[in-house]
Amino acid sequence: MKPKVFITRKINQEIVAKMEEFCEVSMWEEEEVPVPRDILMEKIKDVDGLFCLLTETIDEELLETAPHLKVVSNMAVGYNNIDIDAAKKLGITVTNTPGVLTETTADLTFALLMATSRRIVEASSYLKEGKWKTWSPMQLTGQDIHGATLGIIGMGRIGSAVAKRALGFDMNVIYHNRKRVSKLEEELDVKYVEMDHLLKNSDFVCVMVPYTKETDKLISKREFDLMKDTAILINTARGGIVDEQALYAALISNKIWGAGLDVFENEPVSVDHPLLSLDNVVAIPHIGSASIKTRLKMAEVAADNLIKSLKNEEPECVVV
Ligand code: GLV
Ligand code: GLV
């Protein structure tokens, strides 16, 4: 008998077909609507494997109702949507998709940094709304990227890939990380500094840590108070790392200059969220890894991880 698998969102048919060679697959057939919790609760009861997205909360209650479940394969590098301790306790393998999305997410992070500092979105609206009457010396002026100091909090794979891009723009790169990465310091000409030093000295503060209990609201009022009034915050990691109320307060009081946000505490963020009313916020809907090639690769890696786990082979990317 083939192992049973549930896929929580409509994914590419070729990848489903590949899984069907080995598994009995059922799939939530919607692309833009997440699977309702009660249906997921029902489905998980008799499956051996779950292929899920970061939009699904995989908590202890859910895992406990799944007596056959061997593996949860998350189609994302981040896995804060999954209760890892509960999975470990229940002997359920959890896998993710690091590596394949590193460069694509670094590209987007840099695009957001540039869009925010040079006011690209605001300038485009200005033109399209018929406000452009003349060229003017200080019209839509922003912050320079070249020569600026980029502070990267979290020097993992994606953080390093952002640093590499920054060097091409002649930026001065400093970083803070739980562990110093001396090898990268030489390779990428980046400098390790304490957190407060980074906050005080960076023109761009770029958050690149995973979301955990330790990084919850890591950037809050105290941190904004340390930052330059010309500083720009970039977050393409997870919304919960930044205290959104403190960010809003820092932006309206000109305590910092701008923010580029790809992620929010609650997603999808409501259109009447105060942060979205600000001209100095560039906001995009969690699209860090969203290139066609990379999203297909992520689905492929997630499928491989799932199949290998069900075959009792070692999957490439095991979390627990
Ligand atoms: C996206 O946010 C991911 O974690 O892959
Ligand atoms: C984070 O998970 C990274 O790959 O840097």
From TrEMBL:
The keyword NAD applies. Keywords: NAD, Oxidoreductase. The keyword Secreted does not apply. Residues 5-319 form the D-isomer specific 2-hydroxyacid dehydrogenase catalytic domain. It comes from the Bacteria. Its EC number is 1.1.1.26. GO terms for molecular function: glyoxylate reductase (NADH) activity. It is an enzyme of class 1 (oxidoreductase). Residues 110-288 form the D-isomer specific 2-hydroxyacid dehydrogenase NAD-binding domain. Belongs to the D-isomer specific 2-hydroxyacid dehydrogenase family. This is Glyoxylate reductase. It comes from Aquibacillus albus. The lineage of its organism: Bacteria, Bacillati, Bacillota, Bacilli, Bacillales.
